[in-house]
Amino acid sequence: MLVPFTRSKSLAKSHIQRFPSSYPLTSTLSLDNLEVVAFVPGTRRPSQQAQCKRRCQCFASAAQATALTPPELPRTAEEQTALAKEALQRAEADGVKRQRMQLLLPIDARASNFLDTEPRDYPCSMKEEFEVAVKVASKILQVGGSEVRFRKIGERDQEMDPVGLVSTADKRLAAVVYPIAETLKQIQELAGNSPNATLALVNPQWNNSGQIVSDFGIGPWKRKAEEFLDTFRPTFELAEQRIGEASNIASTQGGVVRLLRAYPHDWQVFLMSYDGNNECVATYEERPSYAELERLLQEVRKTRPATLSALSTSAPPPPPLARSVAGPFTDDEIDGMDKSELRRALTALGLPTAGRLAVMQERVKDAQRKFGFVK
Fold it and tell me: Which residue ranges does the record assign to the SAP domain (predicted)?
């Protein structure tokens, strides 16, 4: 079997013992039964030696990714933290010192149920989001019981733009949490002052989807910023995306997916379902675009309609109302309904059943007005 680039079998054994899940065959084979992809210095020029080393590292990384079992979708915040920590360590072991991570924070409804996909009617504040992000980042950096320290950074100490630095006491690992464009210079200094340390950017707050010019300027300033940020390799991301019209109360064609990328694996797309069967339906080498995800859901809807029967809700759809919705409710009757009754009414109308009580009541009233069900 192949192991990542190393100079000796003893180091290869150490790598396998550090990441045992990466090498399932070692459970039945002796650690001596290895083919070590090694760089053996000889009479070659330094440039040839460096080229050989890079080739060995790339080959070993590809072989490692092939041998690994793709991760499952994290069902809890703790599982996400463990997976992100493992991705950071694997990337660091492969020489990736600058990393970028995007975490799905356990806030709002996800604080009690990490798989919840209901839209946020009353989202928490930026300050609360930041505090949760710092806690998660701190746990990711806690390797072997190492002490983790935190301090705020940035030119302005404002609640609307909090930025923090989390680092281990030995300064081997560090993470800038919620970095903004104004802290780019400090990030460059951190990277330059400790070139051998691993530095991660956690949940960057700049916009890199077409409006980055407003964050980093134009021309040479924008280009230099992009060139520097491109040195940070994405090693972990867990993101949620609503596809179609999942948030439209008059639509039943929407869906919710979660995207997962944990180094060294490709991107995985999971369809979120109320029954907990959050199936991985596709993998991509690059992060899929919205259009690609939309086409994917359309294809899955054709081939497996049952899979998408409740994508935009976090709980099983309740049984239909005993009475016909064709007999309209008065506003007073709707205001007197509890969530269970409202869900049955919305299910009968073919509408999403997620949301707070007042939102669900208004959804039923709007649907009755739209379809002419008015007393």
Answer: 334-368
Q: Which pTM value belongs to this model?
A: 0.65
pLDDT band at 317 (very low <50, low <70, confident <90, very high): very low
Counted domains in the chain: 3
222 and 83 co-located in one domain: yes
The pLDDT score that the predictor gives to residue 223 is 81
Instruction: Answer with the one of 303, 332, 364 that is the final residue of a domain.
Output: 303
Is the confidence at residue 126, as pLDDT, over 90?
A: no
Which residues are CB-neighbours of 339 under 8 A, at least 6 positions away?
357, 360
Backbone angles phi, psi at 165, to 5 degrees: -115, 120
Residue with the bigger pLDDT between 367 and 307: it is 367
Task: Determine contact, residues 238/103, Cβ cutoff 8 Å.
Answer: yes
What are the residues whose beta carbons fall under 8 Å from the beta carbon of 209, sequence distance 6 or more? none
Supply the range of the domain harboring residue 153: 77-303
Same domain flag for 9 and 91: no
Higher pLDDT: 6 or 307? It is: 307
Q: What is the pLDDT of residues 238-249, one digit of tens each?
A: 999 988 765 433
Residue 53 and residue 177 in one domain: no
Q: What angle do CA 157, 158, 160 make, to 5 degrees?
A: 145
Sheet holding 98-102, edge to edge: 148-152, 164-168, 173-177, 198-202, 98-102, 233-243, 255-262, 267-271, 280-284
Flag whether 72 is in a domain.
no
Helices (H) and strands (E) in the chain, counts: 11, 11
User: Do 310 and 274 form a contact (C-beta atoms < 8 A)?
Assistant: yes
pLDDT tens-digit profile of 238-280?
999 988 765 433 344 668 999 999 999 999 999 988 777 788 9
Q: What region, left, alpha or beta, does residue 246 occupy, with left being phi > 0 and alpha being psi -120 to 50 degrees?
A: alpha
Q: 254 and 326: one domain?
A: no
Query: DSSP letters of 53-76?
Result: HHHHHHHHHHHHHHHSPPPPPP-S
In this structure, are 257 and 111 located in the same domain?
Answer: yes
Residue type, 107: I
